Amino acid sequence: MRYISTRGGVEPMPFMDAVMTGLARDGGLILPESLPTIDTGKLESWRNLPYLYLAMEILGLFIDDMSKNDIEALVEASYASFSHPQVTPVRKVGELYILELFHGPTLAFKDVALQLLGNLFEYRLQRTGSFMNIVGATSGDTGSAAIHGVRGKEGINIFILHPHGRTSPIQALQMTTVLDANVFNIAIRGTFDDGQAIVKELFNDLDFRDTYHLGAINSINWARVLAQVVYYVFSFLKLRRAGFDSVDFAVPTGNFGDIFAGFVARRLLPPGCINRLILATNENDILTRFVNQGDYSTAAVRPTSSPSMDIQVASNFERYLYYLRDGDTARVRADMEGFAASGRLDLSALRERVARDFASTSVSEEQTLATIADVYEEHGYLLDPHSAVGVCAARELAGERPVICLATAHPAKFGDAVRKATGREVELPPALAGLEERQSRCQILDADTATVKDYVRQHALTSRH
Ligand SMILES: *Cc1c(COP(=O)(O)O)cnc(C)c1O
Q1: Closest alpha carbon to 405 in 413, 415, 395
Q2: Residues catalogued as catalytic
Q3: Which atom of ligand 1 is nearest to the CA of 259?
Q4: Is residue 291 situated within a structural domain?
Q5: Residue 411 maps to which CATH number?
Q6: Which of 45, 242, 316, 411 has its CA 20 to 30 A from that of 33?
Q7: 286 lies in some domain
């Protein structure tokens, strides 16, 4: 399996190169040259596989520059840190099927991908005798999942910028209480956007980037999408064993990463297994407008109780566009250049095709909190606000098939919203209990590129040891 760019400007490359590259050098996103499919015989042979074995099978379809043994070892190491034996269990809650993706070390679904990505980086650097310095900005969830993905790994230092005093206290502590010598938390006196802009400038300084082997962990890395394909298939198989041949999925979406993994899973499985993907947005509804009107155009970001979806430019959208344009890379490039210039893209001519893949609705703040309250009153089950956005959309758009709703964060991570909706305190799971008493380490810096660059220079690895 070789990997190409959505914009057609790079030579096809093997999987490990795609993982190390992140964003393609022509500015496009990386995709497999063709998407693998499996037949019903293969599906039947996967019928009872535990999560780890299923992950090994699926990764094996996309990776041919790593031995089977190495893939197995990586998968085992990546999911040993999950607290549930099934890794991503499905819970039946009334008529709903909740796919719990929050049993990893930082209690959000991003662990599923970033635990694997950290191990892939380590694997590659061991083999090449090299090193890297990861630099990223976060508003909360991505930073802590990335830090937990690479903490203590040889040949990797990680620098994560978060906006000082603007993440939730728990989110900041999940990052700053990691004391491994290779982890550097930087709280900048500024906003998330300031942090993002600084990181971009570091990457745009090509000398700096090459000297320090800068690496990125944002959601455009192909390995992150691939890791997420597994739980779609895993949960579908679970419902298939319960007698259902076809299901819908409801996915709370911001960057289009998680739901794009659902799209890949839908193409991988025999036709009809995954009927429809319900794309659920909060009040930041660019993707809902795209699905329902063909209008992909940015608007101002509105803060909501599901902050990890407060996004108006979906960084993975270009991957889906590639399939909508039937692999016409010149067309994708023109579309994206037009979008970069004007902030809008008219895809209304393709609406019918989009509707075969997705149904979508935007969920208001009131609906989000009402859903948390309803599900708790009816079933005694607490949803976090991101997961509630998905459940609300599922209830609105469900057909006759069962809907598997992705629960992307543990409710304790967003205790304020849950308390507001239900009046209940969420019991802290062990990963969060006593966080405030733990020792923490963090450097506070001005939101200034030169200052951050100096700090990174002083603490960066320049060789493997
Ligand atoms: C990141 C995140 C999302 C959105 O995922 P995308 O892949 O960006 O669509 C949803 N819920 C939670 C809790 C998240 O951290």
Answers
A1: 395
A2: 110
A3: 9
A4: yes
A5: 3.40.50.1100
A6: 45
A7: yes
Ligand 1 close to Cβ of residue 140 (< 6 A): no
- Is the CB of residue 108 below 6 angstroms from any atom belonging to ligand 1? yes
| Domain encompassing residue 336 | 90-107+222-422
Q: Is 254 in the pocket of ligand 1 (CB under 6 A)?
A: yes
> Is residue 101 in some structural domain?
yes
Ligand 1 centre and the CA of 390: distance in Å?
11
Distances (CA, A) of 358 to 203, 354, 433: 35, 6, 39
Residues 6 or more apart whose Cβ sits within 8 Å of residue 356: none
Give the list of residues 6+ apart from residue 89 with CB closer than 8 angstroms, or none: 99, 100, 103
pTM, full prediction? 0.96
Judge if the beta carbon of residue 275 lies within 6 A of ligand 1.
no
Asked if 404 and 247 count as a contact pair (C-beta separation under 8 A), the reply is yes
Task: Examine residue 413 and state whether it is found in any structural domain, yes or no.
Answer: yes
Number of folded domains that form the chain: 1
**CA 256 – ligand 1 centroid, Å:** 8
